[in-house]
Design brief:
The complex is a heterodimer. Chain A is mostly helical. Chain A has one domain. Chain A is 69% helix and 3% strand. Chain A has 15 helices and three strands. In chain A, helix 4 runs antiparallel to helix 5 and helix 11 crosses helix 13. By secondary structure, chain B is α+β, with helices and mostly antiparallel strands. In chain B, the strands form six sheets. In chain B, strands 2, 3, 4, 5, 10, 16 and 17 form a seven-stranded mixed beta sheet that branches. Chain B has a five-stranded antiparallel beta sheet with strand order 12-11-21-20-19, with helices on both faces. Chain B has two domains: 187 residues, Penicillin-binding protein 2a (Domain 2) (Alpha-Beta Complex); 350 residues, DD-peptidase/beta-lactamase superfamily (Beta-lactamase, 3-Layer(aba) Sandwich). Classes of the chains: A mainly alpha, B alpha+beta. Chains A and B meet through helix 7, helix 11, helix 13 and helix 14 of A and helix 1 and helix 2 of B.
């Protein structure tokens, strides 16, 4: 009886706008993955990607609903162990990880390849929110921020050394969101930007050769039209040739004939652009905007700082992902391995993003409970 | 504690997110709407491969429908176009397999870098080479074996100077836009009728477009346009006669130990050329796929220019054949009567110029003078006519300008004149020059085809037709595109009475007492004229020209043997063999 009451209360107070946007994106994603992996062409394994993505989406929905029973504040004491687990996992990748595309990013567990860096993003959001929450009262001058910087820096450097520039920059995005919401002073911010620019040559030296190349090619895609620039050029051709209404599902020549590489993962947005056209991508981008808007609303309405910080971290992560991924596929951002939330194929990424949505809903629900009481 | 401003800061966050999404939508609008056409074209270019199907060139037939030139399937080894550079290993492997230096392959790739067709490395590859490439095709990504029509000259050298040959369009022709619609590697008529009628023979290429994947594998054929075969030519040439004429010429050249000669057989009433022989010769099949160095050297080192069509481009002094012009002019201008007797003492009394053999014929009339080819008599005719009148008649007989035969490269020839001598040699004109002009020596030059036209005008009682080699242009299905009618170029300003006199004298040439009495044994009466063209570089060239039957001419035969000396000895036997064939049997006669 109590359980039924609880379920009813959850359903009554659910942020359906957020939920609808997420489900819509996941369904669009599965469709696009099907198109990108030629599920329309008979072959023995043609449904593999769709099936896996669908299974994980379903499991995550169930998991998410289950987790809504718990108050997000229960995460607070878990922050420290999670943070340590995170560092151990990242070190694990460094020593035991499977190498792909010149970077160690995967841990093989049974039939599934796990990308710890995807979960690292979630852990970073939770642990940073908890850590910042504890320090909130002391935050003020620049020096007071140093522990927080240090807290982000350790996992940041570990991910960057994988090397996974994309994920490490997600950490920075989460940190930025946190800094913004906690009133990091503008003069400090400007000073940091100045220092950052001044130390650019040093950072350049720390980058891997392929990363430097990506930046070079980003600045001038014609540099290697058939090398690193190839992805971006083909992706732009795919999007551009989609015109207003798109070529139709399964009818995108760029993706169907494999001119578009990585088209079910990082470049899925180009498939959307080619097959669904401007109308389709606009709808997709507006769905992301709804998610961000709901996330910010939840941050606004959260009854405690921890909830606000969590929601801000999640929103920062989503915003950054959309900006970098869509920017990359359309040629206005350098190529970094950042998947598009809910659309890109990848069980680690999908799980992380769905759990983060569940967390937003949890903050919303449990905040309301307090208010109602 | 999060201070009160955090709502304001969340609004900043919201605006940032809205701004980001707006920028991204803007970017999409730019790519998909403003630049949509551009990217659509690029996507189309990515996925489609255009392959041209080369149209077979038109078939060339002789006047009896015998195929002289057709097409055979040829294997082409080519490289598919690639977005990336060809791997050096591939080029190295190809170089070894094709026995072609790698630099040469790279050069071909470079010269063909624009365009969308495969880059053709070897045309008409041998079956062995095709097999070798096929066996290794797994290790040769991007290498294609295409089948395309290759020009085939069925009889090799036969009538090559009329037929011509084809070859790849040259770099010069491309840069100068001689053929605006052709690209490097295309085949074009280079010489002869292949060249003159190239636009008819070439046809319209077809094409097909395939959808390809990123690896260049064809996914499906999108559309196909069948090639339009070139239009065919029906020639006036009679291949059987041509063979007889070539054999006769070759045999005589061997016997005389000479290198070069020309033969023209023409229908005087239509200008239809029945046979066209120029020696030495060459094989047009050598050029079809690019000539080998060995073959090229064999042509290039031959001092007698095998690739010059001597029937239209060889300029020779007409020698005594010109006496037909001088004689006609003198009669028409009433400078002499047919019966006036002129005394030949062996030399002319005004200028010390003599007969070629040193003979002296005494008192002779017009007929004897022309049939015996007396020089002194015609010196006197030159003297009485004067050079200007002589030149006017020469022009009326077609000297000094192209006949307009349907071949490129025809020479003008030359009519000797005081102004020419003044211009070129800066010397005054002497009576001796007029004497020389009157007997076709000195400055006057004519091509065999001009001589054939001149004699035809006499044979037809004054009508001068344009020589031509093609009677019809036909479509693939045999329907007629163009029918070439005889083209009357002019009429001789000579009365029938005077032409009868000239014709009578020419008939006497082949009779007892004439300069070519050896032709008397023919079963048909022949009118002819011998000639000897003085050659400052060696032995004289020998002319013999004839038409038969003398009463109702069907054929004009003109022959010159370079350095053959007396025409009666060198050229006449060739003409005789041809006439023997033509009149061997009324039932077996060819042509009309």
């Amino acid at each position: 009886m109590k359980k039924a009451m609880q379920l009813k209360r959850i359903l009554n107070n659910m942020d359906y706008m957020l939920l609808f946007s997420v489900f819509a994106l996941i369904l669009i994603g599965i469709t696009l993955i099907g198109s990108a992996t030629h599920a329309n062409i008979p072959s023995p394994h043609r449904f593999n990607f769709i099936i896996r993505q669908t299974i994980f989406a379903t499991v995550n929905v169930a998991l998410g609903f289950f987790l809504l029973r718990f108050d997000y504040r229960m995460l607070k004491p878990l922050a420290k162990p999670l943070y340590i687990l995170n560092i151990v996992a990242l070190l694990g990748v460094m020593f035991f990880g499977r190498t792909a595309l010149g970077a160690q990013r995967w841990l093989q567990i049974g039939p599934i390849s796990i990308q710890p860096s995807e979960f690292a993003k979630a852990i970073m959001i939770v642990s940073l929110a908890a850590f910042t929450d504890k320090k909130l009262d002391t935050l003020g001058n620049f020096k007071s921020w140093l522990p927080i910087f240090g807290y982000v820096f350790v996992p940041f450097i570990l991910v960057m050394r994988q090397p996974d520039l994309g994920t490490s920059l997600v950490f920075i995005a989460i940190l930025f969101g946190t800094m913004l919401i906690c009133g990091f002073r503008r003069k400090y911010f400007l000073a940091m930007v100045g220092v950052g620019l001044a130390s650019a040559p040093l950072v350049w030296g720390l980058l891997h050769e392929y990363q430097r190349n990506r930046i070079r090619v980003f600045l001038n895609p014609g540099l290697e039209p058939y090398g690193s620039g190839y992805h971006v050029i083909q992706s732009m051709i795919a999007i551009g040739s989609g015109l207003f209404t798109g070529k139709g599902l399964f009818a995108g020549t760029q993706s169907q004939l494999n001119f578009l590489p990585e088209n079910h993962t990082d470049f899925i947005f180009a498939v959307a652009g080619e097959e669904f056209g401007f109308m389709g991508v606009t709808i997709i981008l507006l769905l992301y905007l709804i998610i961000i808007y709901r996330g910010i609303t939840i941050a606004m309405n959260a009854t405690d700082n921890f909830g606000t910080l969590l929601a801000v971290g999640i929103v920062s992560m989503f915003t950054f992902h959309v900006l970098v991924n869509v920017g990359m596929t359309s040629g206005i951002m350098p190529v970094t391995g950042v998947p598009l939330p809910f659309l890109s194929y990848g069980v680690s990424s999908l799980t992380t993003n769905m759990l983060m949505v569940a967390l937003l809903l949890d903050i919303d629900l449990h905040g309301q409970k307090l208010r109602f009481n | 504690m999060l201070n009160k401003d955090y709502a304001y800061r969340l609004e900043i966050m919201m605006f940032t997110a809205i701004a980001i999404v707006c920028v991204l939508i803007g970017r999409m609008a730019y790519l998909q709407i403003f630049r949509g056409d551009y990217y659509s074209k690029r996507a189309e270019g990515n996925r489609t491969r255009y392959t041209r199907i080369i149209a077979p060139r038109g078939i060339i037939y002789d006047c009896n429908g015998e195929e002289l030139v057709n097409n055979k399937p040829g294997f082409i080894i080519a490289l598919a176009r690639s977005n990336t550079k060809y791997k050096p290993e591939l080029l190295k492997r190809l170089s070894m397999l094709l026995k072609m230096p790698q630099e040469q392959i790279e050069k071909i790739i470079e010269t063909n870098k624009d365009g969308n067709e495969p880059i053709r490395l070897i045309r008409d590859a041998s079956p062995e080479l095709v097999t070798k490439v096929e066996e290794n095709i797994m290790y040769l990504p991007g290498v294609l074996i295409e089948v395309q029509p290759v020009r085939n000259y069925l009889n090799n050298e036969l009538a090559v100077h009329a037929l011509g040959y084809v070859g790849e369009v040259s770099e010069y022709e491309i840069t100068e836009k001689v053929y605006p619609d052709l690209k490097a590697g295309d085949i074009v008529g280079k010489f002869g009728l292949e060249n003159f009628y190239d636009s008819y023979l070439r046809g319209t290429d077809g094409s097909y477009r395939e959808e390809i994947d990123v690896n260049g594998r064809a996914v499906q054929i999108m559309d196909k346009v069948a090639p339009q075969p070139g239009q065919g030519l029906i020639l006036t040439i009679d291949a059987k006669l041509q063979r007889i004429a070539e054999d006769a010429a070759d045999r005589q050249l061997r016997a005389l130990n000479c290198n070069a000669c020309s033969v023209v057989v023409m229908d005087p009433y239509s200008g239809e050329v029945k046979a066209l022989v120029s020696r030495p010769t060459f094989n047009p099949n050598w050029f079809v796929n690019g000539i080998s160095e060995k073959n090229w050297n064999s042509i290039n080192n031959n001092s007698s220019y095998p690739m010059t069509d001597k029937t239209i481009a060889g300029e020779y002094p007409p020698g005594s054949t010109f006496k037909i012009v001088t004689g006609s002019a003198a009669l028409q201008e009433k400078k002499v009567t047919p019966n006036e007797l002129i005394y030949d003492s062996g030399r002319h009394w005004l200028v010390d110029m003599r007969n070629a053999g040193g003979e002296a014929l005494g008192y002779i009339n017009f007929k004897t003078a022309l049939s015996a080819s007396d020089n002194v008599y015609f010196y006197e005719m030159g003297n009485r006519l004067g050079i200007d009148l002589l030149d006017k008649y020469a022009a009326d007989f077609g000297f000094g300008k192209k006949t307009g035969i349907d071949l490129h490269g025809e020479a003008n020839g030359l009519i000797a004149s005081p102004s020419y001598k003044q211009k070129v040699f800066k010397e005054d004109w002497f009576l001796g020059d007029t004497f020389n002009a009157a007997i076709g020596q000195g400055f006057t030059l004519a091509t065999p085809i001009q001589i054939a036209q001149m004699l035809s005008a006499v044979a037809t009682d004054g009508k001068r037709f344009k020589p031509h080699l093609v009677s019809k242009i036909i479509n693939d299905d045999g329907s007629i595109v163009k029918n070439f009618q005889p083209s009357l170029e002019g009429s001789l300003p000579v009365s029938q009475e005077n032409l009868d006199l000239v014709q009578g004298a020419l008939k006497a040439v082949t009779k007892e007492g004439g300069t070519a009495s050896s032709l008397e044994s023919l079963p048909v009466s022949v009118a002819g004229k011998t000639g000897t063209a003085e050659n400052p570089h060696g032995r004289d060239h020998g002319w013999f020209i004839a038409y038969a039957p003398a009463e109702k001419p069907k054929y004009v035969v003109v022959c010159i043997v370079e350095q053959g000396s007396y025409g009666a000895v060198s050229a006449a036997p060739i003409v005789k063999t041809i006439l023997e064939y033509l009149f061997a049997d009324e039932n077996k006669k060819v042509g009309k």
